[in-house]
Amino acid sequence: MLLEDAIITEHGGMGDPQYKIWRLVLKIEMTKEVKPGQFVHLKVSTGRDPLLRRPISIAGIDRDKQEITLLYRLKGKGTEVLTQAKPGEKLNLLGPLGQGFTVPQSGTLYLVAGGIGIFPLLPLAQEALALGVTVHLFWGGGNQSFLESAGLSFWQALDIAVEVSTLDGSMGVQGNVLDLLRKHELAESGRVAVCGPMPMMAAVSEFFKETNFEVEASLEERMGCGLGACLGCVCTLRDEQGKLRRGKVCKDGPVFRAKEVVWDAAL
Ligand SMILES: Cc1cc2nc3c(=O)[nH]c(=O)nc-3n(C[C@H](O)[C@H](O)[C@H](O)COP(=O)(O)OP(=O)(O)OC[C@H]3O[C@@H](n4cnc5c(N)ncnc54)[C@H](O)[C@@H]3O)c2cc1C
Ligand code: FES
Fold first, then answer.
1. Is the minimum distance from the CB of 164 to ligand 2 under 6 angstroms?
2. 230 CB near ligand 2 (under 6 Å)
3. pTM of the model
4. Cα–Cα distances in Å, from 4 out to 37, 43, 103, 110, 156?
5. What is the pLDDT of residues 211-252, one digit of tens each?
6. Which tens digit of pLDDT belongs to each residue from 219-230?
7. I need a labelling partner for 196 at 20 to 30 A (CA). Which of 32, 70, 116, 222 fits?
């Protein structure tokens, strides 16, 4: 884990401005260490406001160019300040942080995304593909314009099956990502990586419960330190003996085995 001043090489809005999605490319030294599913903790302001860093997943890793890509949605004060950062400027970050996804070495990998939960999944798809894994994406969003604004073309450029659902039926199956999954004949076993809103991840976890799939979910919690020190990001986990324990999303996660997560406590 490093604390470093990254240099902004590209920064700008992506797609239809109504979705407020931004793409930020940073030149950093730590690309060799980065694993899919990890995140960086960004100091968005050079001053004291806002004081707390903001966690953003690593959505692209280019080890040759020593660059990482972050995709984020403008939400409140922190991300608003971040949008003002310009190429050539420095941005202080802590990272790479947390435990990422398991990259399978063979077999089938299903990626299941809800909305902007798609962002951390691209590096996982790329690493698994490079190992010869069969990768299949199921992605649900509000409508076609949102999916295109959130990077659908990055996925269509990969050699994988891309299945989408939209709530308004403007693209793919009408409904949510669970409706999409139910319409597909699934492989007998493999791995699943899921990222999106908590209720959606809980439902996907339940969907695969009685199957031979090993499911990992990337959780989101409000964060303070990002380093396991402040207990700002705890979640409830249950081990195989049924014993409950607390996990820190920043350090023990953000990626957890879905069957370990006590979803009721999180919703
Ligand atoms: C591990 C992890 C990875 C993430 N990856 C991405 C990503 O790739 N792209 C993206 O758009 N967003 C991502 N988020 C959510 C992102 O961190 C929040 O949207 C952002 O911090 C909001 O900050 P704000 O000041 O703009 O909003 P405000 O609502 O003003 O934030 C106020 C405070 O709440 C915290 N906060 C608010 N919403 C969230 C949230 N949903 N999760 C965690 N903390 C929150 C902020 O960090 C800040 O401390 C991630 C969150 C986590 C925990
Ligand atoms: S954010 Fe401080 S312990 Fe996780």
1. no
2. yes
3. 0.95
4. 20, 10, 26, 34, 33
5. 999 999 999 999 999 999 999 999 999 998 999 999 999 999
6. 999 999 999 999
7. 32
